[in-house]
Amino acid sequence: MNIPFLDLKAQYRSIKDEIQPALNSVLDNTAYVLGKPVLEFEKDFAAMHNAKYCYGVSSGTDGNHMVLWALGVGHGDEVIIPANTFIATAWGATLCGATPVFVDCHPESYNIDPGKITAAITPRTKAIVAVHLYGQPADVDGISGSLVGGGWLLEGQGVFVNTKTGQKIYLVEDCAQAHIAEYKKVKVGGIGIASSFSFYPGKNLGAYGEAGAVMTNNEGLAKKFKMIRDHGAEQKYVHLSYGHNYRMEGIQGAVLGVKLKHINDWTDGRRRAAAKYRKLLSGIEGIILPKEMEYAKHVYHLFVIQVRSQKSEVRSQRRDELQKYLNENGIATGLHYPVPLHTQPCFEHLGYKKGEFPEAERLAEQGLSLPMYSELTDEQIEYVCGRIKEFFKK
Length: 394
Ligand SMILES: *Cc1c(COP(=O)(O)O)cnc(C)c1O
What we know:
By secondary structure, this protein is an alpha+beta fold. The chain folds into two domains: 8-260, 3-Layer(aba) Sandwich (Aspartate Aminotransferase, domain 2); 263-393, Aspartate Aminotransferase, domain 1 (Alpha-Beta Complex). The protein is 36% helix and 18% strand. The chain has eleven helices and 17 strands. Strands 1, 2, 3, 4, 5, 6, 7, 10 and 11 form a nine-stranded mixed sheet that branches. Strands 9-8-15 form a three-stranded antiparallel sheet, with no helix packed on it. The longest helix is centred in the N-terminal third of the chain and has 22 residues, at 8-29. It is globular and about 70 Å long. Pyridoxal-5'-phosphate binds next to helix 3 and helix 4. Pyridoxal-5'-phosphate binds at residues 59-61, 64, 85-86, 88-89, 131, 174, 176-177, 198, 200, 212.
């Protein structure tokens, strides 16, 4: 049996009849950039996340940049981000000229460890990016609590003020992997002062090309988003602020509009697949299953197991052997992420050392992402789990 890591064709087949007319309508109306389908999608996507404002943009990476740019993050500022995430989280800070400051992840949630944040705060800290990694919301109350306990006051949604110095820190969300995920029954995206989403084709809600969105409940910030997205202009050729071209394409808006109607079902499908994996893989001594935290509704963008290493070996050895074995049996898997951000060559100048963030490093060496998409059949999951069991019996 051949099981891909992700099966975009299966999803396309299931919605082909809805997609074609939506694409034709964009072509007929020549609404290639922004336009009605994008506007409608923005409205529906915001409503789905109980947020007031949403803007379709060119990618999640661009969204990460826009969020920090609109908040005034710039040269000399520091932005706290988890060491275990995709590199694009860090680009948000670096594109603003700011310095990313890494924090280790929590051993169970795999998200930023709230208990380790205050030690990373300096007078230059301007923002904290809570990444809802793998589809599981970060512990935002834990993050808030650690700040408030350390001399900060929650001034407004996602805004903390230092009671002595007046310094402000913004809490923003990277929701690239967490469409419609919930933290304590509240949808992500409208929890911090602002958030970004990715609609890269492989994400839980994927466009047919590059696309993303930014979201906020803050009216002033919403205005800035709209301006930055379109060359700093409200009116054509009059540029009130610096900006860029971060607009979403019409075709992506149309595709996303069609797909949005299915996201609840697709998310249920992912959760069903995760439950099945969990059931069939429980009790295998050699692996650690991902934990769904009690505060979270996980949307399983990824199902990441850890393969325990044995004392004498290189820590990634068993994981690599299992990956190879599954590959030989037609099962594709992934690594998310094999090189934690603090050990990336591009951040060498920041002076971090291997060993500094043990949890992120453990995940990099032991983590293995199993096939995950809503169309996975029970038979496919049984096959994957069967091969994993076989591997550990050998
Ligand atoms: C995918 C991803 C991004 C970037 O999104 P793109 O649309 O690919 O630019 C940012 N952050 C995280 C956590 C991601 O997984």
